[in-house]
Amino acid sequence: MTDQAKEEENLTTVSEKFCLEQIKNSNVKVSHKYTLGSLDSQTFCVRFDPLDKYIAQGCGDGTIRIYNVFSGKQSFVLNTEMEQPMPTTQIRWRPTASKAVTKNVIISVNANGALQHWHTTSGKLLHTIWDELNQLFTVDYNPDGTQFVTGGSDCIVRVYDEQTRKIFVELEGGGAGEPGHSNRVFCVKFDPEDPNFVISGGWDNNIKVWDIRTKSPVRSLYGPYVCGDSIDITYEIGDEPVLLSGSYRDSRTLQLWSYDTMSHFIDIDTDEGLPSEKPCLLYCCQFNKTNKELFIAGGSGSNEVKIFDLKQEFKPVAQIKDLSRACFSVDWSNSGDMFAIGGGDGVIRVFNVVSEV
Known about the structure:
Layout: H1 3-16, E1 19-22, E2 28-36, E3 43-48, E4 54-59, E5 64-68, E6 74-78, E7 88-93, E8 105-110, E9 114-119, E10 124-130, E11 136-141, E12 147-152, E13 157-161, E14 167-171, E15 185-190, E16 197-202, E17 206-211, E18 216-222, E19 231-234, E20 242-246, E21 254-258, E22 264-267, E23 280-287, E24 294-301, E25 304-309, E26 315-321, E27 327-332, E28 338-343, E29 348-355
Antiparallel strand pairs: 1-26, 2-29, 3-4, 4-5, 5-6, 7-8, 8-9, 9-10, 11-12, 12-13, 13-14, 15-16, 16-17, 17-18, 19-20, 20-21, 21-22, 23-24, 24-25, 25-26, 27-28, 28-29
């Protein structure tokens, strides 16, 4: 058997090594679409592009692999020449609302402190910002693509101007205001409705909302232990915006909060109807980008991913379990009818989702 044939056989075995279960009375139906990638490097991030044409994969060897959603084939690969390969920890596509001339641009952050802009279709590296004394774990664009924000091991949240690639503001708190983060920052998000606000969380069990005009937190909550891309926000449920948090621990892992007051709404029972053999310590969670009543969460321990439905009283309605390794990243397509998961086994699994009336 050739090496390629062995790899294909191994990939088939890994792609089949999971179990998909669903509750019978749910209108949400999930099906496996395909498995992408290879087994040679862990997947730290998966991300659909704004048009759902491509999926980008940030890998443990630093490469960024981009697949065509329609064909399931690899289209481009970036960052292949690192002298000392370190994980690409997070990726964001530049929003289509951006006025920049160059299209098909992604921004990536790496554990070696590199923040890079890439032109995906040509493979060209457009710009690098080095923060060699910092490990970068997270990045996000504001809705119109004029700014981006990063977080990492030095506990400082930095907002950059997209056009100049210069620091716009550093958010570290203190002085006359609230203190900033005291440990690693693993998740940063721009407020989708007001780009003056940035949300951040990490190892210090704090989620903070920053006003970049005053450089200070305007409100915060203590509790969630954020170890990945596990904070999200929606304005489309109920009368006030809702914050979703996922924690890397064995209890109270998935929680909803009032974004306006940072008060606690509910601890979600992640086992009701679809129990896990052991607790799932969460690395990632996200609201569906179209149907905000659905959200997804995944992690380690039980090595699984679950989809939750607010219409089913926040209960899980589908479960992808028995993965060979932890799930590090999840992403809904922008159309809301697919999601992708990636983790320690290296492959990306893509699923279709149908919400029946």
